[in-house]
Specification:
Oligomer: single chain
Structural class: alpha/beta
Low-confidence stretches: 5-18
Largest sheet: 6 strands, parallel
Number of helices: 10
Number of strands: 6
Radius of gyration: 18 Å
Strand content: 5-15%
Order of helices and strands: HEHHHHHEHHEHEHEE
Strand order of the largest sheet: 3-2-1-4-5-6
Shape: globular
Length: 246
């Protein structure tokens, strides 16, 4: 069962009682879009504009389906759900061309830099597991290279040949774990996600998942997360046996 709580710098009494419900971890794996980078609003606007060119609208139900999915899967869902007058390949071409412009240097999410620096300073191995392609990753992180260089490795699900199936399948998180030198077990890895598809993928991989969802995502879509937070600023590392913030 997921838990939602806001925290201060010290471990609250309630959280202290809950700590026994969490497993100690040694490695952390982060989603990127909507979790580290504030790209979801940009993606929504971009996709809405492309969809509008086909005289269609972009409903929330369809948007929810594509959250956290690979570029190919995102486009396939949109074209088929909305019955657009184009092929998946035609839409994908427009999508990829547009995102290389619109997503340039996306801003960081609240609390992202603090948490990444903290984990790196305490020698906690960290990795990125994003459904984006390698090209898209390069564009979005261009203005934050110093921060993203702190990650041991990055797995880009839309272009990585080892990721056979995108989220909600567990492939991307299992691949990310396998590329750490220590080869941690799934139980030793903690996933950070914002999307329900990503939470499902992390849990299917056998990992605990910290979820920082879009406010519009309902309770039913949050319940499989280990912990649900309002932002990364609320994360308490000590709950999972990681060094606490000072």
């Amino acid at each position: 069962m997921s838990r939602l709580f806001s925290t201060g710098s010290a471990l609250s009494a309630t959280a202290s009682k809950m700590v026994s419900n969490f497993r100690k971890v040694t490695h952390c794996i982060f989603d990127m879009d909507g979790l580290l980078l504030d790209t979801e609003k940009i993606y929504e606007k971009m996709l809405r504009e492309i969809i509008k060119s086909y005289n269609a609208t972009y409903p929330w139900a369809t948007r929810l389906k594509v959250l956290g999915t690979t570029e190919q899967r995102t486009v396939s869902i949109i074209v088929n759900d909305l019955k657009l007058s184009c092929t998946v390949d035609e839409f994908l071409k427009k999508f990829r061309e547009k995102q290389l412009v619109d997503l340039d240097g996306a801003p960081l999410m609240r609390g992202a830099a603090r948490l990444i620096h903290h984990l790196h300073q305490h020698n906690i191995p960290i990795a990125v597991a994003t459904s984006s392609s390698a090209d898209s990753y390069e564009v979005k992180t261009r203005k934050h290279l110093e921060l993203f260089d702190l990650f041991h490795h990055k797995v880009t699900g839309s272009s990585d040949p080892e990721v056979k199936q995108g989220k909600p399948a567990p492939d991307i998180f299992l691949v990310a774990a396998s590329r750490f030198p220590a080869k941690p077990t799934p139980e030793e890895c903690l996933v950070f996600e914002d999307a329900p598809n990503g939470v499902t993928a992390g849990r299917a991989a056998g990992m605990q998942v910290v979820m920082v969802p879009d406010p519009h995502i309902d309770e039913e879509q949050r319940k499989h997360a280990t912990v649900v937070l309002n932002s990364l600023e609320e994360f308490q590392p000590e709950l999972f046996g990681l060094p606490a913030f000072k």
